Amino acid sequence: MDDERGTVRSARAGASDAPSDRARLPRSRRTVGEAAPPGSSSPWILMYHSVAVEEEDPYQLTVSPERFAEQIGWLHRRGRRGVSVRELMRARAQGRDDKLVGLTFDDGYADFARYAVPILQAYGFTATAYVVADLLGQDNGWDTEGPRKKLLTVQEVTELASAGWEIGSHGLGHQALPGLPADVLAVQTRESRRLLEEVVGGPVTGFCYPYGAVDRPAAAAVRDAGYDYACAIAHSPLTGRFALPRCYVGDRDGAWRLRAKKGRHRLRDAVTSLKHSRRERRP
Ligand SMILES: [Zn+2]
Q1: Rounded to an integer, what distance in angstroms lies between the CA atom of residue 110 and that of residue 116?
Q2: Residue 62 alpha carbon to ligand 1 centre in Å
């Protein structure tokens, strides 16, 4: 438990430039997992939410289209290709993920299709959009203090999926999973998957924890629902295929800060692996 609190605390301190999804989470739900499965180094995955022009952005979820284009251009110049997490995990299984970076967009804002997609297409990049399965075409009512933002409609999600963009599940109702009873966890993971598979007309294999909040029962529910992987945010004792850490990218992140964040990801990865291996060696 101490390790876990330490990880969360240092992750928060390290991400001091961003309020992060944790700031949006009701305090009672902020704890993450207890025990730890064996972990390994994790791929580099960037976390975006909204790409738009926004006057008011209390949760710092929005990156302007100009800044986004600059960030994507920077990745391209560095010889990296942005891909969906589905593609990243496949490439990784074959040891071909060297030059790849996962690009993820949480919540399924309508501005993904309007601003992010054309910029990504210009570079031949792909990405994953994690959508709230029962809120398509509605808005982000769960973020009480921020501006209302439109979410992708059923038709838009269908079109994005058929154009090759990965659509993953962000659960139902944008609810944090830790602390929910087992039957509710099963509904969150299985029902959201079923709804989205109808919309995209194919398998949905990626899950993304609302608020990045994950504990052991939540990760087990996601695995048991048949997903191939799941995205969290912070490194933790649960770090692994069903709690992939991600790097927050905000509107203040230019080239220098992106480079620093990549270094920080590697460092946290090394520390997490070390903690995992120490725990395994314990009698
Ligand atoms: Zn979210």
Answers
A1: 10
A2: 13
For 65-131, give the DSSP string: HHHHHHHHHHHHHTT-EEE-HHHHHHHHHTT--TTEEEEEEEETBTHIIIIIHHHHHHTT---EEEE
Interval 88-138: pLDDT, tens? 999 999 999 999 999 999 999 999 999 999 999 999 999 999 999 999 999
User: Are 234 and 6 in contact, with CB atoms under 8 Å apart?
Assistant: no
Spatial separation of the C-alpha atoms in residues 194 and 208, rounded to whole Å: 15
Give me ligand 1 centre to Cα 152, in Å: 13
Structure tokens that stand for 247 in this block: 């790097």
pLDDT in tens, 52-88: 998 888 888 999 999 999 999 999 999 999 999 999 9
Residue 4 near residue 236 (C-beta atoms within 8 A): yes
Angle at 255 between CA 252 and CA 260, to 5 degrees: 85
**Which residues, other chains included, contact 43 with Cβ-Cβ below 8 Å and sequence gap of 6+?**
88, 89, 92, 97, 100, 101, 102, 244
Torsion-angle region of 233 (φ positive above 0: left; ψ -120 to 50: alpha; else: beta): alpha
What is the per-residue pLDDT across 234-254, written as a single tens digit (0 to 9) for each? 999 999 999 999 999 999 998
Q: How remote is the CA of residue 211 from the centroid of ligand 1, in Å?
A: 5
Å from CA of 99 to ligand 1 middle? 27
C-alpha closest to that of 30 among 195, 213, 192, 160: 213
Quick: pLDDT tens for 25-37.
654 443 333 333 3
pTM here is 0.86
- Tell me the one-letter amino acid at 73: G
CB 139 within 8 A of CB 100: no
